[in-house]
Amino acid sequence: MVLNLFFLVLGLVGWYFFSFRVLRYMVDASEGRWKWELALYLLLLCATIFLIKFAIYALTGYPAPGSWASRLFLGFGLVCSYLVPFANEYIKHFFKRKK
Fold it and tell me: Which candidate in 5, 48, 63, 81 could, as Cys together with 70 as Cys, close a disulfide (CB 3.0–4.6 Å)?
């Protein structure tokens, strides 16, 4: 169980870290500056989402392999990855204004 918690935390930290990199290189690619790092960070982002998925499955038994929830986990994880940098900036701005 401790190992699964370690993998879950490692996956969440990796998801947080790689989401910023993927978004940055996707913005560069949309402006016509393609870089090979986009493929690398997208692959690492997918790997961390799978790590999160399997750690959650090992800890709770959900989502069961082969279920719709299991199949949609990667898609929702990738879509939510683009919200992480924006949420981070919003949280920084929110706490900065409060002081």
Answer: 63
Among 87, 86, 19, 90, residue whose Cα is nearest residue 52: 19
Own/partner pairs, 3-12, CB within 8 angstroms, 24+ separation? 4/55, 4/58, 4/59, 5/55, 5/59, 7/51, 7/54, 7/55, 7/58, 8/51, 8/52, 8/55, 8/56, 8/59, 10/48, 10/51, 11/48, 11/49, 11/51, 11/52, 11/55, 12/48, 12/52
Quote the tokens at residue 84: 């992480």
Q: What is the DSSP string of 63-84?
A: SPTTSHHHHHHHHHHHHHHTTH
- Take residue 70 and report the two structure tokens written for it: 């299991």
